[in-house]
Amino acid sequence: MANGQRRPGQRPTLEAVAARAGVGRGTVSRVINGSPKVSERARAAVLRAIEELGYVPNRAARTLVTRRTDTVALVVSESEQRVFDEPYFAGVIRGIGSALSETGLQLILAMAQTREEHARLEQYLTGQHVDGVMLISLHGADPLPGRLEEMGVPTVVGGRPVGITPYSYVDMDNRAGARQAVKYLIGKGRRRIATIAGPQDMGVGVDRLAGYRDALIATGVPECVAFGDFSQESGARAMRELLARDPDIDAVFAASDPMAMGAMHVLKEYGRRIPDDVAVIGFDDSSASRLYSDPPLTTVHQPTEEMGRQMAHLLVARINGEPLEQPVVILDTHLVIRGSA
Question: 295-310, pLDDT tens digit by residue?
Fold first, then answer.
């Protein structure tokens, strides 16, 4: 049909936009792809024609031209239950989402735990399906970040991994946060301070245990360590183990809020008053620590949403080829004192 008209129900084409705007097909393509090599008059005519016709660019065709998918992936090396149950992950995802909302990039979420799942995911991520990848909750010397970089996929890691040093990552000052928490307990006169540490194949688990040990140096307070996986169930198991080992524990620093809350349940089962008999400190400052613990949980605040935002900002910069002045970002933590300590 003449003059860029179209039949009812027919999807508008690039040619229809060009005819309506009175320009060539190439000019329309340059406007859609953001090229500066278009006059303002032509750009305005094309944008007006796009609006009038309701034209939607063909994403597949645009991808062939620009080699961009406008999609990024967040990979979490945990189970679906952990991801949707624990508030840490929700905070990071909210932060990523808020930062990406300003860019037009779409986010896909992928979870992989086993070696086979990682292999399938690696094949997908390196197959030009995404423009970049963010990874959180890596365990051990996971080869995925290095392989993605080798294949030219911009990558940002959340949390310092163990055994590898990625080019770009965002982390909390976990060691300083743990040290502050345990020093606070020492300052309150606690002398049998146990810790429920996180997994030692994760940087966060290693650093928070190191902070606990830093605070005990030169105090004469003996170490008493049990390990969990950051879940509430593991915190309860570790607390039972600690009490069996030393019934006179008077304080517990847990490396996550869920583990701290699991420990509190067990302490109550054993008739220990919190904080009179045993003070408890967690790490996260999650909403659950404020709303669902009794007494309210003293905890180390970590800015999880800001972590997500910083990860997204770094990734977008890398996708756009911008030089990174600070490819590694470490965020501050601080102690929030409530009723449990």
Answer: 999 999 999 999 999 9
